[in-house]
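Homework help thread (please don't just give me the answer)

Our assignment gives two proteins as sequence + structure token strings and asks us to describe the second one. The first is just a warm-up. Here they are:
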Amino acid sequence: MRSLDDIREEYEFLEGDERYRLLIELGRDLEEMPDALKTDATLVRGCSAAVWVYPTGEGDKLHFLADSNAAITKGIVALVIAAVQDRPAVEVAQMDVTAALEPFDLKNQLSSNRTQGVPNMIALVQEHAQRIAAQ
């Protein structure tokens, strides 16, 4: 998975539809999430499309599998995951993921329907990080 900084660099050079294409590409590049993990327990609430996030990390390093049934939403999921993937739980627990995503200006680039679940995704990831960090 590409780093959030690498993605941001490319994103800043693009406009309009090219940004949508990049998001779709990022979603396609997500690690495959088995259908068996796409359950009610892994479903992120509040998203206009179905979004699933499942933690798989070992030790204190976080790793997530994620998927969505909508291409652009899956790209947004990929951005959130890129911000935290394979980082120490302590770091993610204290991280301002929302601020890390601000350069993408998602609220102005996408409809509110597409971004309404982002805070819930971030909360889910950070709650998991806090549980791991506390162990």
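The one we have to describe:
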Amino acid sequence: MLALRPNCECCDIDLPPDSRDALICSFECTFCTDCANGILGGFCPNCGGELVRRPIRPAQKLINNPPSTVRVLKAEGCAPFIAA
């Protein structure tokens, strides 16, 4: 089950569970659309994977399956993704 992390790892903007502005990679690294489409060029700076829109969990399912409250933030900020 997706963790639904609460923030962008680059800019720390809040990304609530119903946000259509949250993008994730296959490891669930989470970024906002501005960072993902801007500096990151659509790729995760951690694994190099494609960033896709995170699905929205229906509100009634959040009761028994709450989103994560653990904020992940890259202290050094995000650098542009460079393919190897």
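TA reply:
I won't write it for you, but here's a hint about the kind of observation we're looking for: DSSP finds two helices and three strands in the chain.
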